[in-house]
Amino acid sequence: MTDDVQKHSVHTLVFRSLKRTHDMFVSDHAKSIAKDEQSHKLKMGVKVKADYSAVLHMPILKEVKDRVYQQPGSMQDQLTYSQTGDDPEYLITGTHAYPSGPGLALTADTKVHRNPSEAGVHSMALALPPSQAKQEAIRTAASVTDIHRHIGGAERASALSIMEGGTTRNSLVRKVPTIPKPQWHPPWKLFRVISGHLGWVRSIAVEPGNQWFVTGSADRTIKIWDLASGKLKLSLTGHISTVRGVAVSSRSPYLFSCGEDKQVKCWDLEYNKVIRHYHGHLSAVYDLDLHPTIDVLVTCSRDATARVWDIRSKANAHTLTGHTNTVATVRCQAAEPQIITGSHDSTIRLWDLIAGKTRATLTNHKKSVRSVVLHPRQYTFASGSADNIKQWMFPDGNFIQNLSGHNAIINTLAVNSDGVLVSGADNGTIHLWDWRTGYNFQRIHAAVQPGSLDSESGIFACVFDHSESRLITAEADKTIKVYKEDDMATEESHPVNWKPEILKRKRF
User: Which DSSP helix (H) or strand (E) runs through 271?
Assistant: First the structure.
């Protein structure tokens, strides 16, 4: 008995498995039901009579006839046609004569309609002169396929008719966008170099009265300088690490500073001492900005957050979370969206100040966004990254254009009302751009101060004063440099090296 089981067990198990599989899947609902020929024939006969009874007497064209599915009870069985040689004909069963008008009796001649033979059609086409045949083809209405194929063609190309030897030839010429001519801006030149800090100068702010400006440095001090003479007026100590951001309030006599010591301080400039601290950031604070119309301070940090502070009560009104890496820059404006941040996660976020939530996230940049600047007159802004400078439109952050060519890590941006955009980079280069066209009209690489290494030529911050006649930069050689427009320059002496070439801007 055991030998029997061993001998037949494999076959038995295989066949039992097959039977089980068959029983399980035989009622698969995904399988189509086998067609019943009789019911299908009945169904098609009813459908033909119901839907096509009015045209059953019409002839079938030869190419359609070849494509009709040969099946009993199909439409072809119901269609009647007769052929006499090459001329198909059929009987008219209507009440009026064809092709005569209504009211005329049918006669033996009018009740039979004869279609022209294929040979007759070809002979007629060959008899037409070439020019007339071409005009007939042009007059022919486009098919739906042609319309879909050429959709949007009006935007992509324009048709030009060129007369050559009495014949008309249609040629398509692509419309290529060209760079608009940029506005002329006088070149900027180095006017003054201010020394006094003992470390990298990381931040600058100009006071609203345009009498003095303030700088923060890696030597842990904040220095106030006279704008007209460049002389040191005051040094403030209190930070225990690099001062990364400074801002002067236009609503009160306060100076705000932040640094890599995680501290945010409010200085009373009447007493030159700290009167408030804003505690909450978990890591170095990289930038800060004041809201122009309400008593609100916004800071951003290496802890990947931006925080909104009530200046007077020191309360943390909002913690803006969403970035996944260091938030390097923050800017405020009175209109919506009121807060803009740029981060090392290569995104820009536009924030709703009331809700404390992200309104839009811009992901076009591929590398860290270290600087954002708002245009003083237009409802636009620019962001700087190592891949490109990009311009955007508020309120939704619609992309405008790329400004390519400053191939370095861009630390800072500044723009004035005249449409001059300045970008400062880690390698010590400054590029000046025409805001509207993105034309790079000047490049500056100032020498480092004596005693510094050539590698110490980075630009960490730049700002225009309120008269917009001076550009102030904070640099890695521990100096502050002041630039002015060249008053003697004219458009004839410094022409714009502009060529109306094809516009090459990456749209992403």
Answer: none
The two three-digit tokens of residue 314, written as one number: 């020191």
439: exposed, middle or buried (Cβ count in 10 Å: 0-12, 13-18, 19+): buried
DSSP 132-188: HHHHHHHHSPPPHHHHHHTTTHHHHEEEEEEEETTEEEEEEEE---BPPPPPP-PPE
CATH number, domain at 353? 2.130.10.10
Pair of tokens at residue 301: 């940090």
Q: What DSSP letter does each residue of 430-470 carry, written as one string?
A: EEEEETTT--EEEEE-PPPPTTS-TT---EEEEEE-TTSSE
Residue type, 165: G
pTM: 0.65
Average pLDDT over residues 457-465: 95
CB 451 within 8 Å of CB 194: no
Cα Rg of the chain, angstroms: 40
Q: Is 473 helix (H, G, I), strand (E, B) or coil?
A: strand
Residues 6+ apart with CB under 8 A from 307: 278, 280, 281, 298, 299, 300, 301, 316, 318, 319, 320
Q: Is 265 contained in some domain?
A: yes
Structure tokens at 223: 């220095």
Per-residue confidence (pLDDT) for residue 93, from 0 to 100: 47
- Residues 2-57 have pLDDT tens digits of 455 455 677 788 888 887 787 776 655 556 677 888 888 898 888 888 888 877 77
Phi and psi torsions of 205, nearest 5°: -150, 140
Q: Which two tokens stand for residue 359?
A: 């309104």
Judged against a pLDDT cut of 90, whether residue 254 lies above it is answered with yes
Residues 405-421: pLDDT tens digits? 999 999 999 999 999 99
Asked whether the predicted pLDDT for residue 176 surpasses 60, the reply is no
Kindly tell me if the per-residue pLDDT of 135 is higher than 70.
no
Report if residue 416 sits inside a domain: yes
How many domains does the structure of the chain reveal?
1
Kindly provide the b/e burial profile for residues 113-152, where b requires at least 16 CB atoms within 10 angstroms of the residue's own CB: eeeeeeeeeeeeeeeeeeeeeeeeeeeeeeeeeeeeeeee
Q: Does residue 454 fall inside a structural domain?
A: yes
**Full residue range of the structural domain in which residue 246 is found:** 188-485
Cα separations (Å) of 340 from 149, 208, 373, 397, 453? 43, 22, 9, 10, 36
Beta-strand runs (E) in 260-326: 264-268, 273-277, 285-290, 296-301, 305-310, 316-321
Classify residue 5: in a domain, yes or no. Answer: no
Q: State how far the Cα of 447 lies from the Cα of 449, in Å rounded to an integer.
A: 7
Tell me the average pLDDT across 244-270. 95
